Amino acid sequence: MKQISKYLSLIKFSHTVFAMPFALIGFFVGIQYLHIQQNTGMPNLIHSNSLIEKITLIVLCMIFARSAAMAFNRFLDHRIDAKNPRTATREIPAGIIKPGNALLFTIICCMLFIATCYFINTLCFQLSFVALFIILFYSYTKRFTPLCHFVLGLGLSLAPIGAFLAITNTFEIQPVLFSGIVLSWVSGFDIIYALQDEEFDKQHHLFSIPVLLGKKHALKLSSFLHIITTILVIFVGFYGQMHIMYWIGACIFSGMLLYQHQIVTPNDLSKVNLAFMTVNGIASITFALFVIADIVLHKL
Among residues 91, 94, 136, 159, which is most buried (max CB within 10 A)? Predict the structure, then answer.
């Protein structure tokens, strides 16, 4: 159990609250899609496969993919982390986990992710290699581009599309729009998180939006991205003909985005971790609960 807790800490397992709720949204949007197809004369696709089995495989995919991405990031950055006072106590620089073991853990998680996708359907299996490339490639990006935040956002944005594909085996606009929400939302709050390392990144020739623009303008860009997020949330509501539960969730989610920009300023970064983890975690879970409730109550 002690070893397990070390690796859960390494991969920050609690951070799955960012993408996992949107994967569940993609799952229920997929069920809704199949329900509509069934009502227009298609065969009964909803019960042809076990939904419990599907959602279990989706959750496992999320766990394995994120674990691989986080462990690889910690492995690749362990020398950088050792030099940064904020990250020097992380498991690898602190000597709690050896770099080789972290890399082995990454490889195992990648293999488990691919194998799980294989048992979902052929399309998910084929796209699993693309997904792995994106989420692992992110770890290199701060070495050469300030757009690293957007690559992280892209990686997490695969969650609703992937879950939808697992259920339907086809592409549709609505899950792509939810992925757009994740992309702009995650990119925006990752910029806020990166404010903590602006000076360190400058000294060690690392790239980020705060390094490129400075704290003030980085926060402005983050605010702009979260405005885009809110616009997309509203658009999805109208596009999907959602009902009152969705709009309640949309208001709470958008309000949480606004709140984090009230508690983090260029001159006061003391609440960055509150904004990053607590506020965004609550926002994601709350929004998903209301979206799923809306789908279940009005569309199934």
Answer: 159
**Residue 190 CB partners (closer than 8 Å, separation 6+):** 149, 152, 153
Distance CA 288, CA 72 (A): 28
Q: Quick check: 65 and 132 in contact, CB under 8 A?
A: yes
**Of residues 296, 293, 259, 300, the one with CA closest to residue 276:** 259
Res. 180 pLDDT band, cuts 50 70 90: very high
Domain boundaries defined on the chain: 2-298
Give the pair of three-digit tokens for residue 77.
Answer: 């950055």
Tell me the average pLDDT across 284-289.
Answer: 96
Per residue in 188-222, pLDDT (tens digit) is 999 999 999 999 999 999 999 999 999 999 999 99
Alpha-carbon span 281 to 275, nearest angstrom: 9
Query: Is the CB of residue 271 less than 8 Å from the CB of residue 264?
Result: yes
CATH T-level assignment (fold) for domain 2-298? Tetracycline Repressor; domain 2 (1.10.357)
Residues found in the chain: 300
Say if pTM beats, i.e. exceeds, 0.85.
yes
- Cα(68)–Cα(74) distance, integer angstroms: 10
Distance CA 95, CA 106 (A): 18
What is the CA 204 to chain-centroid distance, rounded? 27
Does residue 166 contact residue 23 with C-beta atoms inside 8 Å?
no
For residue 42, what is the DSSP state?
-
Q: Which residue in 204, 211, 160, 166 sits closest to 186, CA to CA?
A: 160
CA torsion, points 179, 181, 187, 191, in degrees to nearest 10? Answer: -160
Confidence of residue 47 (pLDDT cuts 50, 70, 90): low
